[in-house]
Specification:
Alkaline Phosphatase, subunit A, 3 domains, 16 helices, binds 4-nitrophenyl sulfate, Arylsulfatase, metal ion binding, calcium
Length: 590
């Protein structure tokens, strides 16, 4: 017998001692969130690609492959949703800042940087005792309070811009004075032997290894620069794709469609549209065909190199005994990119390689000092069998691979056609980690609730959908707009590739967006149009400034950036000279 203080009673009583059985330690999983940049729907082997991606194929075997997952049509808006579970307009990222017009920037939620009204998945996991790491592209704000190190990531090495060189610390567009890299909140100089995919995985392994065995799980966000422009890869990988694309983009588009059908990603009778930027392959002369095929070979090589380095991370986790307790989420920020936004032909001529001191020689294509991108025809093949590509709200810009996998997950080797959206990633990661989503306040400040859905019922097989028939998801980027509801998609694409007409598709039966149902299904069409208007109102979608196009705005912003100093100096000189001029005039008058 012994005296125990009974909780709350304040009196000592003689009772039998209770033998405390320690609770089973709950092993919370490590989570690796891998984000590729500009990877098209059929760019990896488990989605029908000819590119050899054994690591991603093995991961797909270890979990669930989503065939109907959608994301934003360009970078930062997607990242805002992926990392917060909140719609991108509400989170302050309607577009990348590089493409916002001055009229738009007068609105607080049109800054293109992640607002303080949202919490990142890293904040929440860190608060729940996770180690949180990030390596790669950030692009959600580069002022000190917007760095990933201030948004919940404990260890970081991050590139701030829309893209950068993969071989050295060098900007890829003249809108940047330098390639802006930061590590743990400080400016960072890249090592001499830098290649982006290798470096980012090296850093991820270093971060994980520095805390191994201390009992806390980790969350690692690996945000690859592959396969954003400039498309660059090591020679040994390029060699494997020489000759693979010699038959051109139309043949590749067909091959990928066939494999997507065979692997059950899309219906057998999927038809395809042809966007106007896809050139006539047969009309190209042999030199041009050879050059285009090599541009694409470097692209395939960059994907395989990314897969190879993910493989190194998997090997490290296996050899250190952490793999079995790790869940992987692999996806892309948006669909494939055709060398430049809106007007691809204009990009190389006006902003591209020459002005930046890059070369585009055939022999050294993809290596250090070379500027490479894929042409629109191959971007369409990367998105095969979908229509359009990055920057547009066609399926090719928005539907991308999503794999969620890990030893500990109950279902393996399965595919789901359930609709899923970028805001679902954070709630899903939180559910897998057993962490509560925040309410209306976080760390003493009001925050927006997450609108995303937890996808884990699809992982366990407890549900075959997480969005019901009545649930609608809206999205807008520079006038290209969309509403998903059930199997239907209401969509408008603006010029130059689109025609500004709203259309209606059944994307379950017709993922290629070939049969417009707008006039055949007027009730659904009108109902979804009305629903889109609600989305636009509730999310503060602004009308486009007159004459706005993404490319024109990017170029204008770039010129402002480049000539800012010159203009300022000119104005200052005017200001200094003005009194002398006035004095001179007055003297003459007298
Ligand atoms: O080609 N560009 O000019 C270009 C490409 C991509 C881009 O941004 S991203 O962040 O959406 O990838 C910005 C500009």
């Amino acid at each position: 017998m012994c005296s125990l203080l009974v909780a709350g009673s304040g009196v000592a009583q003689d009772v039998e001692p209770i033998v405390e059985i320690p609770p089973e330690p709950v092993t919370r999983p490590n989570i690796v969130f891998i984000l590729a940049d500009d990877l098209g729907y059929t760019d990896i082997a488990p989605y029908g690609s000819e590119v050899n991606t054994p690591t991603l194929s093995a991961l797909a075997e270890q979990g669930v492959r989503f065939s109907n997952y959608h994301t934003a049509a360009n970078c930062a808006p997607a990242r805002a949703m992926l990392l917060t579970g909140v719609g991108n307009h509400l989170a302050g990222v309607p577009n990348i800042p590089e493409m916002l017009a001055p009229e738009q920037r007068t609105h607080a939620h049109y800054q293109g940087v992640l607002g303080d009204n949202v919490v990142t998945v890293a904040n929440l996991l860190e608060g729940a005792g996770y180690h949180t790491y990030m390596a790669g592209k950030w692009h959600l704000g580069s002022t000190p309070n917007k760095l990933p190190s201030r948004r919940g990531f404990q260890r970081t090495v991050a590139m701030m811009d829309s893209g950068a060189d993969n071989w050295e610390q060098r900007p890829y567009l003249p809108i940047y004075d330098q390639a802006n890299w930061f590590a743990d909140g400080e400016r960072f100089t890249l090592p001499e032997d830098f290649y982006s995919s290798r470096f980012l995985i090296d850093k991820t392994i270093e971060f994980i290894d520095s805390n191994i065995g201390n009992g806390q799980p980790f969350f690692a966000y690996v945000s690859f620069m592959a396969v954003h422009i400039p498309v660059q890869a090591p020679q040994s990988f390029i060699d494997r794709y020489m000759g693979v694309y010699d038959a051109g983009w139309d043949v590749l588009r067909e091959q990928r469609l066939q494999r997507a059908v065979e692997s059950g990603l899309v219906p057998a009778d999927t038809a395809m549209t042809r966007v106007s930027t896809t050139g006539d392959w047969d009309a190209l002369d042999d030199d041009r065909k050879r050059y285009e095929a090599k541009r694409m070979a470097v692209y395939g090589a960059m994907i395989e190199a990314m897969d190879f380095h993910i493989g190194r991370l998997v090997e490290y986790l296996k050899s250190s005994g952490q793999y079995d307790n790790t869940i992987f989420v692999f996806t892309s920020d948006n669909g494939s990119e055709a060398s430049g936004p809106a007007d691809p032909e204009a990009f190389p001529a006006r902003l591209g390689p020459a002005g930046q001191g890059y070369h585009t020689d055939y022999e050294r294509l993809g290596l250090q000092g070379s500027y490479n991108s894929i042409s629109p025809g191959f971007a369409s093949a990367s998105a095969s069998p979908l229509s359009f590509y990055k920057f547009y709200t066609g399926e090719g810009g928005m539907r991308v691979p999503l794999i969620i996998a890990g030893e500990g997950l109950p279902r393996k080797q399965v595919s789901t056609p359930a609709f899923a959206w970028a805001t679902d990633i954070t709630p899903t990661i939180l559910a897998l980690a057993g962490v509560e989503a925040p309410g209306a306040r976080y760390a003493g400040r009001p925050v927006l609730p997450m609108s995303g859905r937890d996808l884990s019922p699809l992982l366990s097989g407890n549900a075959d959908r997480v969005y019901g028939e009545e649930d609608a998801v809206g999205y807008e980027l520079t006038g290209h707009a969309v509403l998903f509801q059930g199997d239907y998609k209401l969509v408008v694409n603006q010029p130059p590739l689109g025609d500004g007409q709203w259309r209606l598709y059944n994307i379950a039966r017709d993922p290629g967006e070939v049969v417009d149902l707008a006039s055949g299904q007027p009730v659904i069409f009108q109902r979804m149009l009305a629903r889109y208007q609600l989305y636009a109102r509730d999310n503060g979608v602004l009308p486009l400034p007159a004459g706005y196009t993404q490319m024109r705005q990017l170029v204008t912003n770039a010129l402002h950036q480049q000539y800012r100093e010159v203009i300022l100096l000119f104005l200052l000189t005017l200001l200094v000279l003005m009194p002398f001029y006035v004095a001179y005039r007055m003297k003459r008058k007298r």
